Automatic annotation (TrEMBL):
Subcellular location: Membrane
The keyword Ribosomal protein is annotated on this UniProt entry: no
Organism name: Heterodera trifolii
InterPro entries hit by this protein: MFS, MFS_trans_sf, MFS_Vesicular_Transporter, Tet-R_TetA/multi-R_MdtG-like
Any one GO cellular component localisation term in the record: membrane
Keyword field contains Transmembrane helix: yes
Membrane association type: Multi-pass membrane protein
Protein name: Major facilitator superfamily (MFS) profile domain-containing protein
PROSITE patterns named among the record's database cross-references: PROKAR_LIPOPROTEIN
Transmembrane segments: 12-34, 46-66, 78-99, 105-130, 137-160, 166-188, 209-228, 248-268, 275-293, 299-318, 339-358, 370-394
Family according to the record: Belongs to the major facilitator superfamily. Vesicular transporter family.
Key words, A-Z: Membrane, Neurotransmitter transport, Transmembrane, Transmembrane helix, Transport
Amino acid sequence: MFKELTNRQLVAIVMLAISNLCSTVVVSCIGPIYPGEAKRRGMSEAQIGLVFGLFQLVMFISAPLLGKYMHVIGSKWMCIAGLQIASLAAIAFGTLNWIHDGFHFFWASLFIRFIEALGEACFLTASLAIKFDPFPFYGFMETVAGFGFTVGPLIGGVLYDNFGGFQMPFFVLGTLLLAATIPAYFLIDEVKDDFSEDPLGMFGMLKIPSLWLMVFAVVLCAISLSFLDPILSGHLQSFGFTHTKTGLMFFLCDGSYCLTATLWGVLLDRWNCNNFLMFFGSSATIVSLVLFGVVEKRLEWICISLAILGIASGALYIPSFQQCLDVVKKRGYDDSFQTYGCVSGLIQSSYALGGFMGPTVLGGWGCQKFGLRSIVLSIVVINLIFIFALLSFLTAKRFCTATTYFVDEAHSSIIIKESSRNSLETL
């Protein structure tokens, strides 16, 4: 696969990979280090959760719009602008350590995260579409991004404890992102796509019933993972963990996701078991949550629960993403840049909605008001609702596949026709 590429394309792939890695690391590295800094300035868990969740709220609102109008802005310029905005915002976030007043620290955190989220939305939405057109390396880039989310908290904890404190991760990664804009200008070609006013469009996608089930799965996956962001470091305080050890606990969850993601992809390619994997993912998520926040608090249970949660999240998310692409193509969408832009924007927006609800409504405000155990049980209930919806959809699909008999008068024979199977496959 790499042998077919020119040197220029190989360098472009490396540049995009490094940019994906740095952008995901800088987003995820705050997990073990920001809550402690915020609490020392008198911020509540609800405020900390809002800082985490605002990033995803902005992604939720902006990603589908950017995907829809990417053909107007241009994928190349959207990608470069996103890199510049995200990198400068990351560097600015590192200066928050110099603000000692809790009120100003909170509002400055919100403002910078808002700007950073806009940059990330531009870069990620554009890079997804760019990767589909010149080179078929979506899986490779997603692996890089997943690795960034995996090692981000660990890198943040190590740099905080050993190499300069709070500002160091943001200065280093922000500078790398800013430097990536220079080769991006020369290496990324504008994707050529003949735009037409497709009557289907993104809003047409939302009329596909089974697409909402996929959106539910993506939102649920994001909620189950992200509600830990503002609370995990505090939950581990009783064990005397350093920021590095806390980062390792985040790594345990994200690492198990990253290691098993390829396995789920192989299973999907070989057996096309989308629905089974989603059922398994949601069921395993329930087990992990019970071990984390319902049973007696013990370190070994927490470790096991985080590992299971990472595995379960991959089983829930990966088939959902692939099935969304398959469904829209079956419903008449072209295999085009415009379609990929809409789908990538929709998927990112769905994940961002869950990523906002997780740390803000549940992990932050919810845990502060109702306690960890109640919030964990509420997420368990949401997973049970998803399982019920999935099984109901599969049952309806099975029983609605009617067999219609009609008489061919010319040949005096009975012909069996499965009339609704094709239509149901496009649900």
